[in-house]
Amino acid sequence: MLEVTFRRDSRQRLSSVFATGHADSAVAGEDVVCAAASAILQAAELGLAAYAQLGDGVAERADGFMHVRVAAAERDRADVRAILGTAELAIEQLAHQFPVHVRYARAGEETESFG
After folding, report:
1. Hey, which of 7, 30, 77, 95 has its CA 20 to 30 A from 71?
2. In this structure, are residues 18 and 112 in contact, taking their beta carbons and an 8 Å threshold?
């Protein structure tokens, strides 16, 4: 199962996205659910890095793992909120459509400090 958590800071601003696992809805290379989630999260990472110009260091990645973080000073920006908010809506819908393969969660009051 793919688990995606959108975390918020103490001011309820989106601060990070943590994804782990695989959707496993089909064999590798044919798993459209995993491909959809991956495309959504990679588009958000690209939007933060290139469009919002937060730089290339916003995400850590490995096979079956992605962690995107936004520095506290950048969380109120409209472009950052739009990019992360759109990704959250899309992942939430994907999890609603494929609940056996994707779990969506919201977490609040993140204590981690970044930037």
Report:
1. 95
2. no
Strand order in the sheet with 2-8: 59-62, 65-69, 14-20, 2-8, 102-107
- Rounded to whole angstroms, the Cα distance separating 13 from 48 reads 15
The parent domain of residue 76 ranges over 2-107
Label residue 110 by pLDDT band (50, 70, 90). very low
For the chain, helix, strand, coil in percent to 5 are: 40, 25, 35
Q: Are strands 65-69 and 59-62 parallel, antiparallel or unpaired?
A: antiparallel
In this prediction, residue 30 has a pLDDT band, given cuts at 50, 70 and 90, of: confident
Look at residues 86, 76, 12 and name the one whose alpha carbon lies nearest to residue 46: 86
